[in-house]
Amino acid sequence: MGVPEIRVEELKQRLDAGENLFLLDVRDESEYEISNIGGQLIPLPELSKRMNELDANRQIVTICKMGARSAKAAQVLHNAGFNHVWNLTGGIHAWSDRVDRRVRKY
After folding, report:
1. What domains appear along the chain, each with residue ranges and CATH number?
2. How far apart are the C-alpha atoms of 81 and 94, rounded to whole Å?
3. Residue 3's pLDDT is what?
4. CA neighbor of 87 nearest in space, from 21, 2, 6
């Protein structure tokens, strides 16, 4: 079973409404420095050993460049017992295309 996904428009709406969502960026540090929409950076290869930094009771949205790595991260978290996890469909590129063109695509 796949993990739930959230579209960039819905994420923007929920953030604007003040929902306390935890954004988890799973790209590499160099990618995060080029472009990001905020959130905590934990690169996907480090996620398994750094899960203790996350609160399983928080609503977590995983983010990457286009959605593939964040889908893997969301699945890893879901398998570890995190029940409130969504993958950002289309990642940073979708955010740039449909929410904020100032966010750099690379």
Report:
1. 5-98 (3.40.250.10)
2. 28
3. 86
4. 6
Radius of gyration of the chain (CA): 13
Report the pLDDT value the prediction gives residue 97, as an integer from 0 to 100: 98
Question: What's the pLDDT score for residue 37?
Answer: 96
Q: What is the DSSP string of the chain?
A: -PPPEE-HHHHHHHHHTT--EEEEE-S-HHHHHH---SSEE--HHHHHHHGGGS-TTSEEEEE-SSSHHHHHHHHHHHHTT--SEEEETTHHHHHHHHT-TTSPP-
pLDDT along the chain (106 residues), means of 10: 91 97 98 96 98 96 98 97 97 98 96
